Amino acid sequence: MSVRRWKQVISISVAVLLVTSVILAVVFGIKYNRLYHENTKPQETAAEIGEGKVETDEYENIIKYYTNIKSDENFAYKDKHPELYGSSQFNFTEPSEKTCYLTFDDGPDPNTTPVILDILKEYDVKATFFVVYHDSEDAKALYKRIVDEGHSIGIHSASHDYEKIYASVEAYLDDFARLSDHLEQITGKRPDIFRFPGGSINTYNSSIYKELIAEMIRRGYTYYDWNVAAGDAKSYEVSTEDILYNIFSADSSSKEKIILLHDGGSYQTTAEALPEIIERMQAKGYSFAPITTDVRPVVFEYKP
Ligand code: ZN
């Protein structure tokens, strides 16, 4: 081969190598970026489990607690979001029999939520979904399906970004309003019940939680923490055995159980554990109900 030919071969080889490198860099760059974002999306943290917190479930205390806050009309947020008023009357009913409220946070998810809804339908069990904001057609259909099949739908958070929503009471209300508007458009109704991301008292809202809770109560919204956590929202998939252990090793004396579960990730084990959760609770004498505004809330210990 001539020197010229060699030069041509080398040039082509270098060009092919360069193009291949660029393609590889782009492909892996996208993949890495996706992996990175999947791993850093807001995960439920220890705060979501409500570690170190005690729930207050004394009926009289809760009534007093709500009534005192509600009667105080001197809040700074009166003019914000005039559309955001719930209809809670705070006339809570103590369950007459052992009642279990299954609650699913962080959904809807196009893979997980339909499986959970199918199981609930099979067992004729009604539950509660504290949802986040999604705008896809799948999500819109799921918000509707939740309501159509007789479950309760409550506000969880539009962004589920702890730092953003707990930056101030206004920031929380803005996020809440975004999801409330969205759900009203899709289901025709604004939810009256909600669950704070991370629970009502957590490491992110420690400087504003009193003002925030007071403002939400004043607006006629009822919030629900939990007294049983499935522990199914870690950064990895928790086994069905661990989920069942977390639920059934918890204090069994409570007549009213509000169980924290999640349908927001693509993990399958929550749905896999669900039939056994339902059957074992039924065997213990519990019936299931969706949360409505007359259900006595379980709330983390609040010291006014
Ligand atoms: Zn959550």
Task: Please give a structural write-up.
- The chain is of the alpha/beta class and 304 residues long.
- Helix content is 45%, strand content 12%.
- α5 links the parallel β3 (128-132) and β4 (152-157).
- α3 (59-71) packs across α8, α4 runs parallel beside α10 (269-283) and α9 (240-248) packs parallel to α10 (269-283).
- Mean pLDDT is 84; it is low at 29-54.
- Zinc ion (ZN) binds at residues 44, 48, 105-106, 156, 160, 197.
List the helices and strands and how they pair.
Blueprint (H helix, E strand, L loop, with lengths): L2 H38 L5 H4 L5 E2 L2 H13 L27 E7 L6 H12 L4 E5 L4 H12 L3 E6 L4 H4 L3 H19 L5 E2 L14 H10 L3 E2 L4 E2 L10 H9 L7 E7 L6 H15 L3 E2 L10 E2 L4
Parallel strand pairs: 2-3, 2-8, 2-9, 3-4, 5-6, 7-8
Antiparallel strand pairs: 1-10
The protein binds zinc ion.
The site of zinc ion has 7 residues, from loops.
